[in-house]
Specification:
9 helices; alpha/beta; Dihydrodipicolinate Reductase, domain 2; binds nicotinamide-adenine-dinucleotide; about 35% helix; 5-stranded mixed β-sheet; Rossmann fold; 6-stranded parallel β-sheet
């Protein structure tokens, strides 16, 4: 039977794209929630969870810990697209994944997930001592977190390839008297403007060559289609933490 899909953040940009793509995939939109008192079909996440088979969640970082607890209590599987959450939120997500299937991705586009896999391979192949890794992202002017979740995922992929932890080598937003670039650093720069859906560029620059991976999302439908594909894949799986790599077999 086609699963009933609940949408957390249904009044938002991604929520509206999800309504279209859930229907296009032949699944049922069970309704959704927005910011408390600002629209949606249910009063809160628990009521939504009780009325559907799976929740797709594109809201705001401040909701993540509460949604993790509510969905685990309701035993409702969770596809999480919200970005910008903290280490404490990550622990809440991991705790929920003990009880329900959880699939989280900073970016649901199949192309970006392929780029992430390639970024890890390049990180492993290109020595940090001679190839400087830098990540540039640009998004629409309404975006509230920086660097983007996808930029951070790219940094984590390079760091994993290099056998280091991103937090130990990350350099975000250079400004003023920064001093020279440290060897092994992974640098981030964030641009904001207009209605850019999402652009990311990862470069490895050495003395005599530069290698780059670039991805441009032209339409947020690409994220919505990926999230619906993830939801249909997740439906019926055992509790655990999954990623788009599992869905795409990367
Ligand atoms: P948006 O501001 O247009 O929509 C946010 C939605 O969340 C709205 O419906 C709002 O009412 C709801 N919301 C906010 N606070 C809430 C709360 N406390 N309880 C319930 N609902 C709440 O934002 P958007 O552009 O749709 O992006 C939403 C999130 O998805 C952001 O974190 C963004 O970075 C992320 N995103 C992820 C991907 C991906 O592929 N993983 C792609 C695009 C956007």
């Amino acid at each position: 039977m086609n699963p009933r899909i609940g949408i957390a953040g249904i009044t938002g940009r991604m929520g509206q794209a999800l309504v279209q793509e859930v229907a296009a995939a032949g699944a049922v939109v069970a309704g959704g929630i927005g910011r408390p008192g600002r629209g949606g079909d249910f009063p809160d996440i628990s009521a939504l969870a009780a009325a559907c088979d799976i929740v797709i969640d594109f809201t705001q970082a401040s909701t993540v810990a509460g949604h993790a607890a509510a969905l685990a209590a309701a035993k409702t599987p969770w596809v999480l697209g919200t970005t910008g959450f903290s280490g404490a939120d990550e622990a809440a997500i991991a705790a929920a994944a003990q009880k329900i299937p959880v699939l989280a991705a900073a970016n649901f586009s199949p192309g970006v997930n392929l780029v992430l896999a390639l970024a890890e391979r390049l990180g492993a192949a290109l020595p940090a001592a001679s190839y400087d890794a830098e990540i540039l992202e640009m998004h629409h002017r309404q975006k509230v977190d920086a660097p983007s979740g996808t930029a951070l995922a790219l940094g984590r992929a390079v760091a994993a390839g290099r056998g280091v932890t991103l937090e130990n080598v990350m350099k975000s937003g250079r400004d003023g008297q920064t001093g020279p670039r440290a060897t092994g650093e992974i640098g981030f720069a964030a641009l904001r403007g207009g209605q850019i859906v999402g652009s990311h560029e990862l470069t490895f620059t050495a003395a005599a060559e530069q290698i780059g991976l670039t991805h441009h999302a032209f339409d947020r439908r690409v994220f919505a289609m990926g999230a619906v594909r993830a939801a249909l894949w997740l439906h019926g799986r055992p509790p655990g933490f999954y990623t788009m790599r599992d869905v795409l077999g990367l």
